Amino acid sequence: MIKPTHLQLHEIKKILADGQISPLTLLNEIYQEIDEHQNLNNYVTLTKNLAFQQAEISYERIKKGNARPLEGIPIGVKDLYLVKGELATSCSEVLRDFVAPFESHITKNLWEKSGAICIGKLNMDEFAMGSSNRTSCFGPSINPWSIKNGKELVPGGSSGGSASAVAAGTCFAALGSDTGGSVRQPASFCGVVGFKPSYGRCSRRGMIAYASSFDQAGILTRSVQDAAIMMDQMIGNDPLDATSAKMPKPNLENANISMHGKVVGYPANWMTIIDESVVNAWKKALNIFADLGAKIEPIELLNFDSYLSVYYLLTTAEAASNLARYTGICYGNKTKEDIGSAYNKTFELFGEEVKRRIFTGLHDLSSENYNLEYNLGLQTRSYIKRQFTDLFNKIDLIVYPSSPREAFALDNVFQNPAESYHEDVFTVLANLIGSPAISVPIGYGKTGLPLGIHLMSEPFSEELLISAAKEVEAKADFIDFLRSYHDK
Ligand code: GLN
Hints:
488 residues; alpha/beta; Amidase signature (AS) enzymes; 17 helices; 40% helix; binds glutamine
């Protein structure tokens, strides 16, 4: 019999609601799983006191027939969400002792309105900058699929701990964040679903910022249905976040829009430059849509390097501005010395990648470079957004791989930072234009590791996106980690 911890979220939801397992028993089993998977280094803090208090409440509510939508379901939380009274480090030395003074909008709703249980905080790249989880001050998180090829593999990033924890069965869903692909790329590497809604769908209040006009909450799960159930609880307007959208809530759990007659575009000019196994997975997804009666059309997008350049130009500038708050006065190393030493000592605590981005951003924002760099980036972003507004008048969905490759080895060395930035070539576009996007496991690459397919649609068309993702998932040749290896 399959272990309760290995079930998908929608399955455990039913079993909990029927009283077949109590939230307290399930919680104990989850902590046992976490214990057995310590080698993955996914959890940087366990929030056991909070979790058992919440499980007690869930137990009572289920008993009284008064269950909330996620009653008693254990959830992991990327360590950049503030959970009141718990550490929130963004996996940086700068915030190593920082205890959250308030609760993020999303997690408050998940615990109080939806009844989910907070089991712990998850490893990530420092300040969400990276695509391998190797920039965390707690050391890297490991991809559970490493067992398959005998070499330690990265889980992707920056939400690497979230993706790895979901794949390994140490939580039923994990909160991630996505500035340029941080839920979708790790989802692809770990063989799970990674969903980022439109910019503005979820409140960013209480999420530690990287690049505010790109940052958006996301979710990692073991199925599209689970991602839909979670996102229905996460979406909602927040008057205290000025960028939060005032839109009617979608009903993603029941999303069921037919693909018949829909137009699916694929950037044919990107097909020539990627590995054959990735192209085959891509073609498989396009065939699934064709079989469902969609019209498949090649589209011409800019060379993907162009999107990447605009992304890194603007996000480094926003990061430099956001991270200017870590001075050692309010946040950071609170030295009793003079202001200059506080600044310097705190700055020294940032990792190499974060420092690089701060300097790059300051360079772009400086008075000499502002017009040629930052301002040009803003104008190009507006141009790209207009191009896609036109495109979405003719095309319903854009489909291409989530990542140009499978998970790579932990000891893989990039020759220069730009090489690591190429990990995001396919994902940054959705953040530039504010579109919803999802990575769904579609098959395996040339070394037998998972590959994800990336679906993107017009801003605020999540119901269409989730309907499409459910169809692809149903016809994909993919068995997740728990079912393919862990149970043997
Ligand atoms: N890997 C990308 C970066 O390093 C995206 C990160 C993210 O989405 N947070 O910027």
